[in-house]
Amino acid sequence: MAQSHDPRCRQCRREGVKLFLKGGRCYTKKCAIDRRNFPPGQSAGGPQSKSKPKEYAIQLREKQKTKRYYRVLEKPFRNTLHEAERRRGVSGENLLALLELRLDNVVYRLNLSSSRAQARQLVSHGHISVNGHKVDIASYIVRIGDAVSVLEASRKITPVVDSLKGTGRRIPDWLSFDLASFTGKVLATPTRDQIDAPVEEQLIVEFYSR
């Protein structure tokens, strides 16, 4: 399973925003953004570049930030954008909606994992089902009406139990969750105002349109 192996706190510092890559740690005072909110390779009081970043650099940074936030590599990310452009509507908003509808992200949004990396692991290890059928592909795109559940044999594993005890994350309005059955349901396609991703999606579309 290919993924970036850069230290996760370093990735957040590089982007200058919390990407919530380390689960519960991101909600504590140990969070790197709270302790050292400056890019890696610089010191807190060190000299900062005075040159204004070029348009290309701004767009590239936004793309990298979004890939890191959703834990997606370049090729699948580009393919998702192509699918977003093929659909009706605004391409950037379609892109974010498709990223939100990935199974690993849905597991995370349902509070069944403390991070997207952990959600990806739960899916790939066969702990999650969609409409009663086990699905082990993290990039699987769920649809309206789909029921996403933790398999009965997996409901007492530590990552799921600890995550449900809580980081206090609110389940978004486009999802519902029944704790008794460990099942979430996709109620709608998420709209931009329901997605809290700290990104400017139009910059990503412009980057790939160059």
What key attributes describe this structure?
Structural Genomics Hypothetical 15.5 Kd Protein In mrcA-pckA Intergenic Region, Chain A, five-stranded antiparallel sheet, 210 residues, Ribosomal Protein S4 Delta 41, Chain A, domain 1, alpha+beta, globular, single chain
| Succession of helices and strands | HHHHHHHEEEHEEH
Give the beta-strand count.
5
- Overall number of domains: 2
Low-confidence stretches: none
Distance between the termini: 30 Å
Helix content: 25-40%
Estimated radius of gyration? 18 Å
Can you say what the CATH homologous superfamily of the largest domain is?
Answer: Ribosomal protein S4/S9, N-terminal domain
How would you classify the helix and strand content by structural class? alpha+beta
Strand order of the largest sheet: 2-1-3-5-4
Most strands sheet = 5 strands, antiparallel
Instruction: Give the overall form.
Output: globular
- β-sheet strand percentage: 5-15%
Layout of SSEs?
Layout: H1 8-15, H2 32-35, H3 55-70, H4 74-86, H5 91-100, H6 103-109, H7 116-124, E1 128-130, E2 133-134, E3 147-150, H8 158-165, E4 175-178, E5 183-186, H9 201-208
Antiparallel strand pairs: 1-2, 1-3, 3-5, 4-5
Helix pairs in contact: 3-9, 4-5, 5-9, 6-7
What does this structure look like?
- With 210 residues, the protein is an alpha+beta fold.
- It has 2 domains: 94 residues, Ribosomal Protein S4 Delta 41, Chain A, domain 1, CATH 1.10.1050.10; 85 residues, RNA-binding S4 domain (Structural Genomics Hypothetical 15.5 Kd Protein In mrcA-pckA Intergenic Region, Chain A, Roll).
- It is 40% helix and 8% strand.
- The chain is built from 9 helices and 5 strands, in the order αααααααβββαββα.
- Strands 2-1-3-5-4 form a 5-stranded antiparallel β-sheet, covered by helices on one side.
- A hairpin with a 4-residue loop joins β4 and β5.
- α6 packs across α7.
- It is globular and about 55 Å long.
- The mean pLDDT is 85.
